[in-house]
């Protein structure tokens, strides 16, 4: 194998071609979690920093993690073809904040357009296994309080309204 081939493979395995958007919860027991906290947690796991592409904090601040063309570390089997968005808070305890939704919807709309991602490809982490035909009842991410179907319907509405 030539050095060029090796370089191409290296780029390839670090790259991301987004066809899906996967929503997560930080599932933190406390309020006020930041992207810096998540970056620290993921480094503790031996990862190259925050595994998400975006973190939306409690107050709706959109914080940039990995660049979109870089492979994430957030959803097994999907990391080479998805954008990972983490919402701080704990989705099993309460739904995302209104401020977080206010930030999330325009971002999703923008990303769906930019990468030509259909609304049906905006999914919760817990939905990945079901796509493969084997739903995992133990995985709740982005949280039991978060209704992904309603989120997609609202997003669809927003995108249609903007046309
Ligand atoms: Zn998750």
Question: How many extended strands?
Answer: 5
Question: What's the assembly state of these chains?
Answer: single chain
Number of domains: 1
CATH architecture label name:
3-Layer(aba) Sandwich
Q: What top-tier CATH class fits best? A: Alpha Beta
Q: Which strands sit side by side, in order, in the main sheet?
A: 3-2-4-1-5
Bound molecules: zinc ion
Strand count, sense and barrel status of the largest sheet are: 5 strands, mixed
The CATH homologous superfamily? Peptidoglycan recognition protein-like
- Estimate percent helicity: 25-40%
Elements, N to C (H/E): HEHEEEHEHH
What is the average per-residue confidence, as pLDDT, rounded to a whole number? Answer: 94
The amount of beta strand, in percent, is: 5-15%
Radius of gyration: 16 Å
Q: In a nutshell, what does this entry contain?
A:
The protein has five helices and five strands; from the N terminus they run αβαβββαβαα.
What topology emerges from the helices and strands here?
Layout: H1 3-13, E1 20-25, H2 35-44, E2 54-56, E3 62-64, E4 82-87, H3 98-115, E5 122-124, H4 128-131, H5 148-162
Parallel strand pairs: 1-4, 1-5, 2-4
Antiparallel strand pairs: 2-3
Helix pairs in contact: 3-5
């Amino acid at each position: 194998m030539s050095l060029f081939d090796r370089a191409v493979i290296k780029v390839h395995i670090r790259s991301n071609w987004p066809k899906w958007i996967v929503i997560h919860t930080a599932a933190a027991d406390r309020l006020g979690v930041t992207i810096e906290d998540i970056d620290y947690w993921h480094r503790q796991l031996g990862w190259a920093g925050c595994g998400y592409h975006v973190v939306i904090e409690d107050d709706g601040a959109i914080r940039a993690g990995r660049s979109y063309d870089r492979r994430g570390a957030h959803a097994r089997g999907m990391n080479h073809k998805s954008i990972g968005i983490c919402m701080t808070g704990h989705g099993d305890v309460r739904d995302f904040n209104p401020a977080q939704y206010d930030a999330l919807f325009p971002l999703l709309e923008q990303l769906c357009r930019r990468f030509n991602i259909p609304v049906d490809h905006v999914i919760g982490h817990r939905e990945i296994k079901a796509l493969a035909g084997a739903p995992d009842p133990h995985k709740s991410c982005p949280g039991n309080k978060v209704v992904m179907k309603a989120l997609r319907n609202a997003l669809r509405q927003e995108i249609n309204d903007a046309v």
